[in-house]
Amino acid sequence: MKKELIVLVADFQQKTVIETLLEVLYQALGIRQLVSKKELDVYSHPYRAPGVYQEASNFLSIFKSQYRYALYSYI
Fold first, then answer.
1. Measuring CA to CA, which residue among 3, 13, 5 is closest to residue 44?
2. Are 43 and 12 in contact (CB under 8 A)?
3. Most CB contacts within 10 A, which of 20, 23, 52, 65?
4. DSSP for the chain?
5. pLDDT at 12 over 80
6. Mean pLDDT of 4-23
């Protein structure tokens, strides 16, 4: 069974913001609540924004068979 969402971000602060938005503020975003943290994985890139900008598609493509959706943010 596939997990729901994988997210690639530039740093730890973005990781914390994304996790909070998806776990706490899901109603305000108009999305359904993720049943558990097992449905969501958020990774921060070791090379921060340039790493996400240059390598997001390669990184996320590795996981395409394991997740239903993928997002990335480098801002």
1. 13
2. no
3. 52
4. --EEEEEEESSHHHHHHHHHHHHTSHHHHT-PPPSSGGGEEEEE-TTHHHHHHHHHHHHHHTTTTTEEEEEEE--
5. yes
6. 92
Tally of CB atoms within 10 A around 35: 9
How far is 2 from 31, CA to CA, in rounded Å? 18
Residue with tokens 């994304």: 18
pLDDT digits (tens, 9 = 90+) for 16-64: 999 888 888 888 878 788 766 788 899 999 999 999 999 999 999 999 9
Closest-CA residue to 59 (of 38, 75, 42): 42
pTM: predicted TM-score of the whole model, two decimal places: 0.86
Q: Which residue type, as a one-letter code, is found at position 18? A: I
CA pair distance 8, 72, nearest whole angstrom: 5
